[in-house]
Amino acid sequence: MKELCQKEIAYESGFNQKRPIALVRGKGARVWDAQGREYIDCIGGHGVAIVGHANPQVAEAVAAQARKLLVCPGSFCNDVRAELLAELVGIAPDGLARAFLCNSGA
């Protein structure tokens, strides 16, 4: 664990303060460190792991999409994004007719 953390710290910008734990895998709401210790994930990848780590349905959906198109910049139209936007606006309260998709918590 110490070598893994030292390597990461040596090459990363230093923006995030590191904790002395190297997480190497997760399943559901639990994660494990390099020594095999188990933790409850109370962060959830800042939202990206809200349905849990290693979720088979999410993994298959990501793999299926990656086999077709991994990323599409917002300056181009996209079939999947169009459907997602329509779904979001469809369940939004009255008066909210547009959505903004972003890759942060904004």
Describe this structure in words.
The structure is a single chain. This protein is of the alpha+beta class. It folds into 2 domains: 2-70, Aspartate Aminotransferase, domain 1, CATH 3.90.1150.10; 71-106, no CATH class. Helices cover 34% and strands 11% of the residues. It contains 3 helices and 3 strands, in the order H-E-E-E-H-H. It has a 3-stranded antiparallel sheet, with no helix packed on it. The radius of gyration is 18 Å and the shape is elongated. The protein starts with a helix and ends in a 15-residue tail after the last helix.
SSE-based structural type: alpha+beta
Radius of gyration: 18 Å
The tally of structural domains comes to 2
User: Which architecture name of the largest domain does CATH use?
Assistant: Alpha-Beta Complex
- Detail the poorly predicted runs: none
The average pLDDT score comes to: 90
* Portion in helices: 25-40%
Distance between the termini: 33 Å
Would you report the number of β strands?
Answer: 3
Query: Order of SSEs, N→C?
Result: HEEEHH
- Sheet with most strands: 3 strands, antiparallel
Report strand %: 5-15%
Shape: elongated
Which key phrases capture this entry?
106 residues, alpha+beta, Aspartate Aminotransferase, domain 1, 2 domains, 3-stranded antiparallel sheet
